[in-house]
Structures are given as structure tokens and as C-alpha cells.
Design a protein that fits this description.
Pfam families: DMT_YdcZ. Keywords: Membrane, Transmembrane, Transmembrane helix. By secondary structure, the chain is mainly α. The protein has 4 helices and no strands. The chain folds into 2 domains: about 90 residues, no CATH class; about 50 residues, no CATH class. The radius of gyration is 18 Å and the shape is globular.
């Protein structure tokens, strides 16, 4: 239950983040906003590592693509900032959520990124259609 709450809280924070990053992008520009966000995230992460004594096992060799999350984060912020200008927070967040659901199903179904393969089941189709319908309702109202 605790992790479910944390996931819902993450979703709420993403909506706030879309607004804050998008507004900063409107006042400055999309790319400067992305730079500032990542600079502050780096500083915040560094402080957490210092105080929480977290750092990971440096003896393990990780695949190079594990380190690409920052690049993906930059791309996500830039795309969100562009979307925010024309769509606002709710539609941007809804479309982001739909994209996350679809990519998650692909990752699970094909065992991408070294994840355990979870075969696609037709019982997921109603959920996909409901999410898509929810996005359309948000877009058209």
C-alpha cells in the first residue's frame, strides 16, 4: 500500500513539474528551462548522496544504457515544455500517462531492457481502451 501511495504521489508531482517546467520554459526558453531543472536535480541528488550515504556498489559493472536516464529526462522535459505551451497541464499529463502505459506494456510483453517477459494478455485491452477513452475525454472537454 505504501508503494501504491508513492506512485500516486509521483503522478501528482509530475503534473506539478509539467506546470513549473513549462512556465519556466515560457519565461526563458525550453532548453534553458531543461538546463536549470537538471542543474538543480544534480545539486539535489548530490546533497542526498552526501547525507544519505547512498551511492551504489561501485564494484559492479553496469550496462552503459543504465546511465542514459538523464538524457531521457532531458528529452522528456523539453518535449513536455513544448507540449505544455499548446496543451496545458491536464492534456499534457494525460498524454504522457498514456505513453507511459503503452511503453510499459511493450517493455513487459517483449522483455525489453532486460526485464522479465510478461506476455501480453487480451484482458489488458479493456484497460488500454479505458485509458485512451479517458485521455480523449480530457482532450475534448
Amino acid at each position: 500500500m505504501k508503494t501504491s501511495f508513492m506512485s500516486v504521489a509521483t503522478g501528482a508531482l509530475i503534473a506539478i513539474m509539467i506546470h513549473m517546467n513549462g512556465t519556466l520554459g515560457n519565461y526563458t526558453n525550453v532548453y534553458f528551462s531543461c538546463f536549470i531543472v537538471h542543474l538543480l536535480a544534480t545539486l539535489g541528488g548530490g546533497i542526498l548522496i552526501l547525507f544519505m550515504k547512498a551511492g551504489g556498489d561501485r564494484r559492479i559493472q553496469y550496462p552503459f544504457y543504465y546511465y542514459l536516464g538523464g538524457i531521457l529526462g532531458a528529452i522528456i522535459i523539453i518535449l513536455n515544455n513544448f507540449s505544455f505551451k499548446g496543451l496545458g497541464v491536464s492534456i499534457t499529463a494525460a498524454l504522457v500517462f498514456f505513453g507511459q502505459i503503452m511503453m510499459s506494456i511493450l517493455v513487459d510483453s517483449f522483455g525489453l531492457l532486460q526485464m522479465e517477459k510478461i506476455p501480453f494478455n487480451k484482458r489488458k485491452l479493456p484497460g488500454i481502451f479505458l485509458v485512451a477513452a479517458g485521455v480523449l475525454v480530457i482532450m475534448w472537454t
